[in-house]
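Here is the promised in-class demo. Please do not try to memorize the tokens; focus on the logic of going from shape to residues.
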């Protein structure tokens, strides 16, 4: 890690720890803009921070670790793809409708913090992406299981421009980074709890079954962090279709195992809304299905392998590590 990345980690970690799950757009988004994290991946010449995907991994992971209730990842990716520093952007999971050279009619679905966004980047069925101005959009407010805004935007004759890039995959990578951080935070809570909680005259941490469960959890968290790092490094080199698919699928599966163990060792207190595990596991469950669930990324990974045939499996797999 470079000195700049250490400074970024210290700054973002302290800021996100202060804001956390209680943050709101109205009161706290200005703080994010002051330190230019909304333009993290946007070039300096365009008014952004000029960070790399390895920098983004640090920031997005810390956002997940502290259950930050602000769209830092969405804004950073939207700004980078659209090439603009002005306004707050976000990324839609789905765009359905009709488009011509410069106008769009239809619906944007699965839009994180779509309410109040100045523009939305959305995947295009014909390849690439589109950038839509949302000033005249009708917002149908919704939320994921963690209570984070997930809106539908209905647009009529909206101004649109075509751009290169794959916002769906980039948001999947962002979710992997956030999931890695949230899994680490949930693991730390679980370890702390079993060391403090007494049962039958000794701490829960002394029981072999509990130790084994937490060891499994630690493996899942570590695997997710490794997958996130590998995908971010591949993106820093230019492209990471395989690495992102593998990382999101691995993070999705780790979430199922890790959150189950976290709640098992916590018992009833883990399900209470005012306990600090609650914001982490609910976000993990929501992020698992966003920007590609298990079936989606399994198909992305498995489809080309099946099509190429068994003779190509090992040569193609090892070619990725050369």
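The designed amino acids, position by position:
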């Amino acid at each position: 890690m470079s000195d700049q990345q250490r400074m970024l980690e210290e700054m973002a970690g302290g800021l996100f720890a202060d804001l956390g799950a209680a943050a709101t757009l109205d009161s706290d988004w200005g703080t994010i803009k002051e330190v230019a994290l909304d333009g993290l991946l946007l070039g300096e010449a365009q008014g952004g921070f000029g960070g790399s995907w390895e920098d983004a991994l640090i920031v997005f992971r810390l956002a997940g670790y502290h259950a930050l209730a602000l769209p830092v990842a969405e804004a950073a990716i939207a700004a980078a793809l659209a090439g603009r520093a002005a306004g707050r952007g976000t990324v839609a999971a789905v765009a359905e409708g009709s488009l011509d050279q410069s106008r769009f009619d239809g619906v944007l679905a699965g839009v994180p913090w779509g309410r109040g966004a100045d523009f939305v980047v959305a995947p295009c069925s014909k390849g690439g992406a589109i950038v839509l101005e949302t000033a005249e959009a009708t917002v149908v407010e919704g939320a994921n299981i963690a209570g984070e805004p997930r809106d539908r935007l209905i647009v009529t004759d909206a101004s649109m421009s075509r751009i290169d890039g794959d916002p769906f995959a980039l948001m999947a990578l962002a979710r992997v980074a956030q999931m890695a951080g949230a899994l680490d935070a949930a693991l730390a809570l679980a370890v702390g709890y079993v060391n403090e909680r007494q049962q039958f005259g000794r701490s829960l941490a002394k029981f072999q079954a509990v130790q084994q469960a937490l060891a499994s959890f630690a493996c899942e968290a570590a695997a997710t962090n490794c997958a996130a790092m590998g995908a971010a490094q591949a993106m820093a080199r230019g492209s990471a279709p395989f690495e992102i698919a593998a990382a999101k699928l691995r993070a999705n599966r780790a979430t199922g195992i890790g959150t189950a163990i976290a709640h098992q060792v916590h018992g009833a207190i883990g399900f209470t809304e005012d306990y600090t595990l609650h914001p982490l596991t609910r976000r993990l469950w929501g992020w698992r299905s966003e920007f590609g669930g298990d079936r989606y990324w399994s198909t992305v990974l498995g489809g080309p392998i099946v099509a190429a045939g068994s003779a190509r499996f090992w040569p193609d797999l090892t070619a990725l590590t050369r």
